[in-house]
Amino acid sequence: MPERPNILLITSDQQHWQTLGVNNPRIRTPHLDRLAGEGALFERAYCSNPVCSPSRSSIITGLYPAWHHCWTIGVKLPEDVPTVGDELRRAGYFTALVGKAHFQPLASQPGSESLECHPTLRDLDFWRKFHGPWYGFEHVEVARNHADEHLSGQHYGVWLEEQGLKNWKDYFRPWPHNPHAPLRRHSWDLPERYHYNVWNSERAVANIERAAREARPFFLWASFMDPHPPYLVPEPWASMYRPEDMPLDPPEPGELDRMPPHYALTQQDAPDFSPWKETPHANHGFCSHRISEDLLRRNIAVYYGMISFMDAHIGRILDALDRLRLAQDTLVVFTTDHGHFLGQHGLIAKGAFHYEDMIRIPMLARWPGRIPAGRRVAALQSQVDFAPTFLAAAGLPAPGLMQGVDQGAVWRGERPAARANLIVENRHQPTALHLRTYVDERYKMTIYRDRPCGELFDLRDDPGERRNLWDDPAAAALKCEVLHRFLNAELQREPTRMPRIAGA
What we know:
Layout: E1 6-12, H1 30-38, E2 40-42, E3 45-46, H2 52-61, H3 65-68, H4 84-90, E4 94-99, H5 124-129, E5 139-142, H6 154-162, E6 186-188, H7 196-213, E7 218-223, E8 232-234, H8 261-265, H9 293-323, E9 330-336, E10 341-342, E11 348-349, H10 356-359, E12 360-361, E13 363-366, E14 375-377, E15 381-382, H11 386-393, H12 408-411, E16 421-427, E17 434-440, E18 443-448, E19 454-458, H13 476-492
Parallel strand pairs: 1-7, 1-9, 2-14, 3-15, 4-5, 4-7, 6-8
Antiparallel strand pairs: 2-13, 3-12, 9-13, 10-11, 16-17, 17-18, 18-19
Helix pairs in contact: 7-9
């Protein structure tokens, strides 16, 4: 075994925790299934926040959003916050990010400058020259768009031109954004060979090869942009699954009546969310979630196709490890930034709805000779745990500022659990939409700032989260008990940046 292993982090974007073939016989993900068979499947992994930028920032900082300060999208991750890449670079690692970053907003202003904004996104001359360092990554090759979004460009745009696709902008929505431009649905006319999955896997492999040539251990984040909406993918993937075979999971009658009021509003044609808004920026999911059954089935079928397409290119990266004889010396982790609704509880996409579909995430880990093969692990995992666990695997101490715990002994099967609980934050606005969820082995509680409503679920007796116990008189004592655990968990996660070294 090498003294310092390679670390390969592979992520998808906005993926439901059950959409791996190893969990879902309807979907084909042979390469991820292979990863699960050769390593471990973690059945209870959670995001730190079900919004892209905060969760991605937690992965590299080991901090919850309230501490790393990227508290929602449109907010910059401050560049002075220490990251796992900073620590690994100092130890001699080659650190690289290929794919989606989303650490910075789509606007830029003094004091909150952003590289991920227009017009910089499509300034290919800038991206030809810029490759980092950035957030602890020595080398970056990034892209921001999902499918044909107008946010295309960056290093992916450079690559498209290098591939000879000079008219690449024709395959993406125009900038400035035109809401009246015709929308593509489901089948994308972009030829498969120009898709960002191809770019992502190709560039990930190239960076692994670079580290091998330089005889340096690497920390590589291969950050795939799918299966994020819009539900759009080239053929044959768009037609890989039949809509009529897709499962539906509608809410039970009266189920949402027991939830906070913004849940039921989603089932109206023209919901009024004004009491839950305080800024001009839109809240994810605060709209009607009503959708025809036919369109929902078609969306799910294409979503599955997007995952299978991504899986094929994850296989390309795993095959490169085998070809370069690096697989034995590499810790590989697959996960996503947060979950996704595919009609569960009457909801679609994402929003401030902390059901398991939204905050629970797929997670796999493989390290030959260290992580026993073929295990299913029920121990709680949080995104804030990745950074300290990676550092421990490299034989490095985690900075005291990091709030995550080292999960290495759990991954290796030496301990049943490393944490008794975790917290999921969601602060999409300064105050009006600000919630937190506590999760332990059995119970789950969500509280809302300045509001009397809340959620309390017994995940053992009600794994489908159909019966919110928050207002149930019979659960009053349980509610008090879980609330006490919640407050204790808040105390437990307070970081200790500097050790106490004297009496005064």
